[in-house]
Amino acid sequence: MAAAALLACVAACTTRPAGDAAASRLVWPPAGVPAPGEVVFERVVDELKASGIRGFLGAVAGAEEGEGRTGFVRPVGAALAGEFLWVVDSVRPAVSVSALDGRSASFVSLPEGFLPVALAAAPGGREVWIGDGAAPRLRAHSRAGKFLREVALPPGFGRCGGIAVAANGDLLVTSVNGSEVARLGPEGTLKARVGRRGEGLVEFNFPGAVAVAPDGTIWVVDTFNFRLQHLSSDLKPLGGFGEAGDGTGHFALPKGLAIDPDGHLYVADGRFDAVQVFDSAGRLLLVVGGHGAGPGEFSNPAGLACDAEGRLVIADTGNRRAQVLKYQRRSVP
Fold first, then answer.
1. What is d(CA 120, CA 92) in angstroms, rounded to the nearest whole number?
2. Which of 56, 261, 281, 314 is deepest in the core (most CB within 10 A)?
3. Please, what is the average pLDDT of the chain?
4. 263 torsion bin: left (phi>0), alpha (psi -120 to 50), beta (else)
5. What DSSP element (H or E) covers 43?
6. What is the pTM of this model?
């Protein structure tokens, strides 16, 4: 299917205020697919505003001195931790933490040479993990940004591509250049490690985002194999789905991955400028977005995250912003 046909299939989000539920509702699902719920646009965050420390954001991130605010440059990853919004900006490089509207913002203090590439909030948002793209390590911070601890990745594992946190606090990490997935305990103890370069089961070609489903199983974006791989909690192969293509249900440049409380899989595709939503069997439920700068539209979307309330945050890289949507389960009479 051509790109124009893809966009014709995209569900539209209006530019009217998010408080108008009828106006901001995205149509779910395509004809003939049972509707599990709806997705509603909540807000765009394209500016961070500091509070309490005059010029702090300017000193750290390049805004004019005393201005106390700055915009994103190249946001590539995002996480939701309670009422805190975390965003990785790959140009600075920096990790910001703010309220969901961008207010009360600050930047997380990182060691010299630390290159943040991925974020993941623990269930309940009690802490947030940051992956280093320059060294084999992860750092945990409180939801408000205070440093808690650092753990090392397994020897020879390679560069971090994505992070997820299981219900028990275990860490799931991908290696983009090592073509591996590892499961670590919260203090860094290696529990399982699988993968190599290839196209078969538990073989990968640039594995990036990773997410934990409500049933405890693991999903991995296998970027240049144009698919999602499904693994058990101990990283045994369970299957997966996906293929390269230019139509709905295919992948062109899959990047971000998130899973809502009902187990639906959200995949950001940087070439389609859209987020596709699938069930666990790989059936397409919805396409959200299309190229543009309005609410619910994207330019090269990357990192995704979904919290227990069904709020979905998207690093809208090319538009230099983060967007927050929300999945609302269909009410049962």
1. 19
2. 314
3. 86
4. left
5. strand 37-45
6. 0.87
